[in-house]
């Protein structure tokens, strides 16, 4: 589906992009950092396939899931606070080292960013990844030049699926809800867009775990961002 079909034949004024699983396949680096952390804590590594299922709600939940060994971690289930804090600090140190080592831009993603920018669309990354890792990754992969704004998982006091990061990005880039689109790979992205009253595109190749992307009630589902052009 062409993006312009969502906006009466025009390009949107503002586009908000999720990062992990939407623009960049970063799971190998995240898995390397999680596994190094688990090993430092005397635990078995989780492996790429499991870590891939745990990404999307930010680093604290990624590490809680890794410690619990399961994707369906809920706030009610107990992970010892000291253990969690130690694990998160180790993860940050490890991810600092692994961030960008194996990450690649998905096919079609850069062409989409370029076309949007050429049509005057103002672009932001709205990710749950902490800011300290987001800027360096975007710069290393040559994507930083497309974005006027980066909102990380720790930029505000709440993160997706809360709509606050999307509201903040729209306010900063002077986008209105009916002229702004959110593009993401997970339930957190679609829920945040819904709550902010924005149209939302979901990609099929990312890290959504649980129900299929088609069940997320996005306005369109695409296999590649190049389909939007
Ligand atoms: O760090 C995460 O959990 C994923 O970040 P994302 O919001 O870019 O998918
Ligand atoms: Mg994502």
From TrEMBL:
Its EC number is 3.1.3.18. GO terms for biological process: carbohydrate metabolic process; DNA repair; glycolate biosynthetic process. Its cofactor is Mg(2+). GO terms for cellular component: cytosol. GO terms for molecular function: metal ion binding; phosphoglycolate phosphatase activity. Pathway: Organic acid metabolism; glycolate biosynthesis; glycolate from 2-phosphoglycolate: step 1/1. It comes from the Bacteria. Mg(2+) binds at residues 18, 20, 185. It catalyses: 2-phosphoglycolate + H2O = glycolate + phosphate. Keywords: Carbohydrate metabolism, Hydrolase, Magnesium, Metal-binding. CDD domains: HAD_PGPase. The active site is at 18 (nucleophile). Specifically catalyzes the dephosphorylation of 2-phosphoglycolate. Is involved in the dissimilation of the intracellular 2-phosphoglycolate formed during the DNA repair of 3'-phosphoglycolate ends, a major class of DNA lesions induced by oxidative stress. Belongs to the HAD-like hydrolase superfamily. CbbY/CbbZ/Gph/YieH family. PANTHER family: PHOSPHOGLYCOLATE PHOSPHATASE (PTHR43434). NCBIfam families: HAD-SF-IA-v1, HAD-SF-IA-v3, PGP_bact, PRK13222.1-2. This is Phosphoglycolate phosphatase. It comes from Marinobacter adhaerens. The lineage of its organism: Bacteria, Pseudomonadati, Pseudomonadota, Gammaproteobacteria, Pseudomonadales.
């Amino acid at each position: 589906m062409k993006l312009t079909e969502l906006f009466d034949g025009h390009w949107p004024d503002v586009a908000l992009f999720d990062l992990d699983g939407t623009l960049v396949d970063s799971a190998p680096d995240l898995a390397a950092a999680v596994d190094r952390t688990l090993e430092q804590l005397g635990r078995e590594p989780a492996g790429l396939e499991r870590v891939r299922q745990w990404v999307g709600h930010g680093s604290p939940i990624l590490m809680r899931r890794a410690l619990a060994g399961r994707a369906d971690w809920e706030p009610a289930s107990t992970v010892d606070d000291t253990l969690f804090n130690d694990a998160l600090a180790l993860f940050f140190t490890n991810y600092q080292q692994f961030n960008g080592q194996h990450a690649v831009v998905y096919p079609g993603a850069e062409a989409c960013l370029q076309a949007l920018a050429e049509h005057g669309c103002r672009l932001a990354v709205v990710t749950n990844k902490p800011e300290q890792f987001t800027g360096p990754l975007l710069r290393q992969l040559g994507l930083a030049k497309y974005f006027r704004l980066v909102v990380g998982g720790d930029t505000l006091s709440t993160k997706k699926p809360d709509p606050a990061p999307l509201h903040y990005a729209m306010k900063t880039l002077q986008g209105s809800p009916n002229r702004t689109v959110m593009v993401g790979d997970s339930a957190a992205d679609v829920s945040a867009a819904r709550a902010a009253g924005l149209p939302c595109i979901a990609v099929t190749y990312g890290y959504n775990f649980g129900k299929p992307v088609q069940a997320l009630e996005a306005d369109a589902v695409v296999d590649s961002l190049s389909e939007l052009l």
